[in-house]
Write a structure and sequence with these properties.
The protein is an alpha+beta fold. It folds into two domains: 90 residues, GMP Synthetase, Chain A, domain 3, CATH 3.30.300; 81 residues, SH3 type barrels (Roll). Helix content is 19%, strand content 39%. The chain is built from three helices and eleven strands. The strands form three sheets. The chain has a five-stranded antiparallel β-sheet with strand order 8-7-6-5-9. The chain has a four-stranded mixed β-sheet with strand order 1-2-3-4, covered by helices on one side. A hairpin with a 5-residue loop joins β6 and β7. The longest helix has 18 residues. It is elongated and about 55 Å long.
Length: 190
């Protein structure tokens, strides 16, 4: 079997990996890797956000916790996964464990529920009023369920000063989304 060097294999939302059936051969085994990693973290009170394979044997694990990720979390996960991956025969040269950062990606309905009331950046699959990318505050929609059962969210965004609008969407409408916090650097907000 020949291998090709590719830039990075991002698994995406670890809660949903049915995509693996339709992917090229180098994604084979990623579902198993996610399952193994999730099981190893099960008793640690941490959420598995992403698993990435990068060039040169780098295996990057992103974790999150309701109270925030600290260095002790990363250290304990690194030790735990090193032992588990050795037993399971997972091939890697370097293991990197980290937090998703202040601009954490939102991929699942649970992510959107968790960050209600926060500022996010959202890119929709289909344009709404000739616009796909929105930045604003995430809310649950007034009519919060579609007939099919999907939860609906609202993003309240400002078009111009004094002109606030809302766009309603479900998670299946989202191309990508991430937190977009206002950061204060010496009194200047981004």
């Amino acid at each position: 079997m020949s291998l090709y060097l590719i830039e990075c294999h991002h698994i995406g939302p670890v809660a949903e990996y049915e995509w693996a059936v339709h992917q090229p051969f180098f994604f084979e085994g990623m579902k198993d890797l996610v399952d193994i990693t999730r099981q190893a973290l099960a008793g640690m009170g941490l959420e598995l956000v992403t698993v990435d394979r990068a060039p040169m044997g780098l295996l990057r694990i992103t974790i999150d916790c309701d109270s925030g990720v600290n260095i002790e979390h990363c250290e304990s996960v690194s030790k735990q996964l090193s032992r588990v991956y050795e037993v399971e025969g997972i091939d890697y040269r370097r293991l990197e464990v980290g937090s998703p950062g202040v601009d954490r990606p939102l991929r699942t309905e649970r992510d959107f529920q968790r960050f209600l009331g926060e500022r996010i950046e959202l890119k929709l699959r289909e344009a709404v009023d000739d616009q796909k990318v929105f930045k604003g505050v995430l809310h649950i929609a007034a009519a919060h369920q579609e007939p099919g059962g999907a939860v609906l969210f609202d993003l309240e965004y400002q078009v111009k000063k004094g002109d606030v609008r809302r766009v309603t969407f479900s998670v299946s409408d989202v191309d990508r989304a991430k937190l977009d916090p206002l950061l204060d650097f010496k009194g200047r907000k981004r």
